[in-house]
Specification:
21 strands; 256 residues; single chain
């Protein structure tokens, strides 16, 4: 038995082969030659035609499979595909197994919002007439990507701020993976201080999340002696995967 992992098998061309064997003991003595006939066939899966090898969580990737030839009786076959969920564990999770429709075999990969980002390997094998089974072969690698947060709206109660007068800043931030609890996002807001020539939080309060409005809110109170003029605003949003999104808005507000 050569086994699925034999280095001989991939090097043999399709067709009939005679293979000779002999063994050597620990004293260096060789056995007589033994001979065996083998018939080698091409794996019926010829490859895949995926549109992309990167996919964001929550999306679906069709997996068209190139299979057989004009003489193949497709109704005799079942195709299985698996993915390496961990380094040592293979699973059909997140996969829809291929079926033969409209003259092609097609399966699907749909990573959930909880699937860890990273590069995964998808393999395939076939079974003919419920008995004859091929080895697993590598089909393609796919990188699962994190959906980054999106800063949709920035709303001041008044973009012209008076010194020593209260105002509010509201942020509409979305994140597909955190859509059920946006409060897990780390949101920070800064303005560019022209005297210190740096981004500071200064007269901006800590960011809070309003459960009712689903908005992030900041209290704004410029000091009485604060320098008048236009100011740039910088927003930083970090999700649970450590993905950071930064947005800078030039001349976002004016202090008078």
């Amino acid at each position: 038995y050569l086994g699925e992992n034999s280095s001989i098998i991939p090097k043999l061309s399709s067709g009939d082969h005679e293979i000779s064997f002999r063994s050597q003991d620990n004293e260096g003595h060789w056995s007589i030659w033994s001979y065996a006939d083998y018939s080698v066939e091409q794996h019926p899966i010829r490859g895949v035609e995926v549109e992309n090898t990167e996919l964001y969580r929550g999306n679906i990737l069709p997996i068209p499979i190139l299979f057989g030839d004009e003489f193949t009786i497709h109704s005799e076959y079942v195709i299985e595909i698996e993915i390496n969920i961990t380094d040592s564990s293979w699973s059909k999770q997140f996969l829809v197994q291929p079926v033969y429709e409209d003259s092609e075999w097609i399966g699907y990969f749909g990573p959930s919002l909880e699937m860890n980002p990273g590069i995964y390997e998808i393999i395939g094998r076939t079974t003919q007439n419920d008995s004859r089974q091929t080895p697993w072969i590598h089909l393609f690698d796919i990188e699962v990507l994190n959906n980054v947060p999106e800063i949709e709206d920035i709303m001041f109660s008044n973009t012209t701020l008076q010194r020593n007068r209260d105002a509010t800043l509201k942020l509409n931030v979305t994140d597909l993976e955190a859509s059920s609890d946006l409060s897990v996002l780390d949101v920070r807001v800064y303005y560019f201080d022209k005297l210190e020539e740096d981004w500071v939080s200064g007269f901006l309060s800590e960011v809070t999340f309003n459960e009712s409005s689903k908005m992030f809110e900041i209290d704004v109170l410029p000091a009485s002696g604060f320098k008048i003029g236009k100011y740039d605003l910088k927003l930083e949003v970090t999700d649970l995967d450590g993905e950071l999104v930064t947005l800078i808005v030039d001349n976002s507000f004016t202090i008078i």
